[in-house]
């Protein structure tokens, strides 16, 4: 750990011998049943509660429990009244708040800003509690803001800590596509006390332990703080290395600054720069402490070995997302891709963290041992599955842009390790199928032909999912994605392997419509190129200007991330629909 007393928490995490109850309590009544008169932490989430390590809040709950804390969950509280918060006495240490696994606006609205009528993270996939009325929405818009205000009203002196995707990606000045405006940091708008950004185990445990020892909460790695002018002055004097970013006022006055600032934040995140970042938000300053260190394999394994039930809380009923990930296993964190439209670098970071084969096999054996196991491990994955077990050959690389414009010579992949993992998991009794459903990088697949062959032969659910996203070289450069040639060559290799295996290799390409810089002509070229390669697309997405991505900054500013020159951006519904229409021609007949 870089900063001295910054974080004292060591792993392994102890399994809590008092865990007599399967799920953390979800109401004060359940807490009472455990004989609790008080408790330490209340975690509020915009999703139904699923006790599975693909759900961020579940990991935080189990990690704090393993530190001996009493943790209660408030899932999808009603937000037009205080009742659901009021049922709980104030927690002894803090109240943690998250919008859920996705940003609440991404979960609540389609790319075009339409209200979604499905929600995989809510009971029966239904976003509404009763009538279709804003107050009956199971997850309010900008959930971290709404829940902070409700928590503050009921627990006026309790420390409020934001965390999760929504908070992490809205920590600086950001764009909100539902309101189509630039907004100040969510930590300042929520008037919460601290924000845990990125993967939050370390910082959250550090906050809890400092509170138990009545120690100050300044300088915790992996957190952001909300400071007054005077506090900022004091911190600026004490900080060894500090960088001030363009303020909210300056960015709204000169939008081009938004792209420059986003590119700076991304570069510093990639380089793991240890300086403190400051950004004036108007009423307050946002201070970002250096990032928490990536997990070691031992720490990563310890987090995923906690006693998750891997199911939705019985009170939640049927949660589609819970079914989707029930028998999926996370094997890797971080992504070195840096695609413009993706926020992983800003959230999980560019350093690849891999779990040990032994721990992954143990988790799969636990899944296979369940009475309701259907014989299929649905995914061995993460952000990019085939970055598993890869590492950088040189220490301290300051670029960490390992796949662009081509695969860096210092990126070491371990084909044999992944092949052995697939063999070991497939050998577990009761396991009939082991699939890789997470994204796979094309250029890395071409570098690991034996692994590609094994995946095509045994480990892809019928089709191999790849994400070329586009075919126009200019758009691919703006997306920070590999060249179209990569797709052509991978296709040739897959078809050759298919012939060897005596079965056709089906590839299902994901493409992105209306990315900043893409015109109707580009959509026509994309449709033509996919047809020429004999590819149909299973599904495609309209570009969504979600918070915290470089593509969103290009969308807002209309500027090229590399040259700063003006680029065309399809913002209007009609323009976006025209591009979409061209790509719909690529969908399989029944999907049109
Ligand atoms: C795997 C994955 C998926 C999987 C599974 C998702 C799941 N877990 O339910 C699948 C393939 C289903 C999926 C689908 C989609 N995804 Co996705 N997905 C991811 C990915 C790669 C990893 C998510 C994950 O499993 N994380 C593991 C969990 C444990 O991490 P976490 O939630 O971040 O939790 C940690 C911290 O946030 C923090 N924390 C969490 N909660 C709390 C609470 C408190 C109080 C504190 C202090 C800390 C804290 O600590 C946790 C542990 O470290 C992320 C990329 C990323 N996260 O960087 C994209 C990502 C979440 N997906 C994204 C999107 C857009 C989608 C889709 C909408 C794409 C589409 N258009 O279809 C769909 C939506 C699906 C749906 N059903 O609605 C976006 C979300 C953008 C946004 N701003 O919301 C992301 C960020 C990628 C990107 N494009 O930038 N996705």
Brief descriptors of the model:
592 residues; alpha/beta; Rossmann fold; Transcription Regulator spoIIAA; 3 domains; nine-stranded mixed sheet; three-stranded parallel sheet; 23 helices; disordered N terminus; binds cobalamin
Could you outline the blueprint of secondary structure elements for this entry?
Layout: H1 28-33, E1 41-45, H2 56-66, E2 71-75, H3 83-86, E3 94-98, H4 104-108, H5 143-154, E4 159-162, H6 164-169, E5 174-176, E6 181-183, H7 186-190, E7 194-196, H8 201-212, E8 223-227, H9 229-238, E9 242-244, H10 248-253, H11 256-271, E10 276-280, E11 285-288, H12 297-304, H13 320-325, E12 328-330, E13 332-333, H14 344-347, E14 353-354, H15 357-368, E15 376-377, E16 379-381, E17 391-392, E18 411-412, H16 415-426, E19 433-434, H17 442-447, H18 449-459, E20 464-469, H19 473-479, H20 484-501, E21 507-513, H21 520-532, E22 540-542, H22 550-557, H23 573-584
Parallel strand pairs: 1-2, 1-3, 3-4, 4-7, 9-10, 12-16, 15-19, 20-21, 21-22
Antiparallel strand pairs: 5-6, 7-8, 8-11, 10-11, 13-14, 17-18
Helix pairs in contact: 2-8, 11-22, 15-16, 16-18, 18-20, 21-23
Cobalamin is lined by residues 43, 54, 56-57, 59-60, 96-98, 101-103, 106, 120, 161, 163-165, 168-169, 196, 199-201, 204, 321, 324-325, 342-344, 347-348, 383, 541, 546-547.
């Amino acid at each position: 750990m870089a900063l001295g007393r910054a974080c004292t928490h060591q792993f392994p995490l102890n399994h809590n011998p008092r865990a007599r109850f399967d799920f953390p309590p979800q109401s004060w009544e359940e807490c009472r049943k455990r004989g609790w008169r008080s408790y330490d932490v209340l975690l509020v989430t915009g999703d139904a509660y699923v006790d599975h390590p693909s759900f961020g809040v579940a990991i935080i709950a189990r990690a704090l429990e393993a530190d001996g804390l009493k943790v209660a969950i408030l899932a999808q509280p009603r937000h037009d009244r205080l009742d659901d918060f009021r049922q709980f006495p104030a927690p002894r240490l803090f109240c943690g708040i998250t919008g859920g696994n996705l940003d609440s606006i991404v979960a609540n609205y389609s790319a075009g800003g339409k209200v979604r009528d499905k929600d995989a993270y809510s009971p029966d996939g239904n976003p509404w509690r009763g009538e279709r009325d804003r107050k009956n929405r199971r997850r309010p818009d900008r959930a971290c803001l709404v829940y902070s205000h409700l928590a503050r009203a009921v627990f006026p002196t309790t420390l409020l800590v934001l965390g999760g995707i929504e908070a992490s990606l809205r920590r600086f000045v950001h764009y909100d596509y539902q309101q189509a405006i630039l907004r100040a940091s969510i930590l300042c708008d929520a008037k919460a006390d601290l924000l845990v950004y990125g993967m939050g185990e370390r910082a959250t445990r550090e906050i809890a332990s400092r509170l138990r020892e009545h120690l100050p909460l300044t300088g915790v790695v992996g957190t952001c703080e909300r400071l007054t002018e005077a506090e900022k002055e004091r911190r600026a004097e004490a900080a060894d290395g500090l960088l001030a970013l363009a303020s909210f006022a300056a960015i709204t006055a000169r939008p081009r600054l938004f792209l420059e600032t986003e590119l700076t934040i991304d570069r510093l995140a990639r380089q793991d720069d240890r300086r403190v970042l400051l950004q004036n938000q108007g009423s307050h300053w946002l201070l970002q402490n250096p990032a928490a260190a990536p997990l070691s394999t031992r720490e990563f394994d310890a987090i995923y070995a906690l006693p998750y039930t891997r199911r939705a809380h019985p009170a939640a009923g049927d949660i589609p997302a819970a079914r989707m990930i029930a028998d999926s296993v996370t094997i890797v964190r971080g992504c070195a891709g840096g695609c413009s439209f993706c926020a992983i670098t800003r959230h999980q970071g560019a350093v690849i963290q891999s779990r040990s084969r032994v721990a992954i096999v143990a988790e799969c054996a636990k899944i296979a041992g369940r009475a309701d196991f259907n014989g299929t491990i649905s995914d061995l994955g993460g952000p990019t599955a085939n970055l598993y077990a890869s590492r950088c050959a040189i220490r301290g690389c300051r670029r960490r842009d390992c796949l662009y414009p081509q695969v860096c010579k210092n990126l070491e992949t371990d084909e044999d390790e992944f092949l052995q993992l697939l063999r070991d998991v497939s050998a577990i009794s009761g396991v009939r199928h082991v699939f890789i459903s997470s994204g796979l990088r094309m250029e890395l697949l071409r570098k690991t032909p034996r692994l590609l062959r094994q995946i095509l032969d045994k480990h892809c659910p019928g089709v191999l999912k790849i994400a070329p996203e586009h075919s126009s070289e200019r758009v691919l450069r703006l997306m920070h994605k590999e060249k179209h040639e990569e797709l052509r060559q991978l296709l040739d290799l897959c078809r050759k392997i298919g012939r060897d295996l005596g079965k056709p290799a089906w590839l299902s390409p994901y493409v992105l419509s209306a990315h900043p810089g893409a015109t109707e002509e580009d959509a026509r070229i994309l449709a033509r190129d996919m047809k020429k390669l004999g590819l149909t697309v299973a599904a495609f997405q309209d570009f969504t200007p979600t918070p915290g991505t470089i593509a969103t900054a290009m969308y807002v500013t209309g500027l090229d991330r590399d040259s700063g020159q003006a680029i065309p951006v399809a913002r209007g519904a009609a323009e976006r629909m025209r591009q979409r229409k061209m790509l719909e021609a690529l969908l399989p007949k029944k999907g049109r």
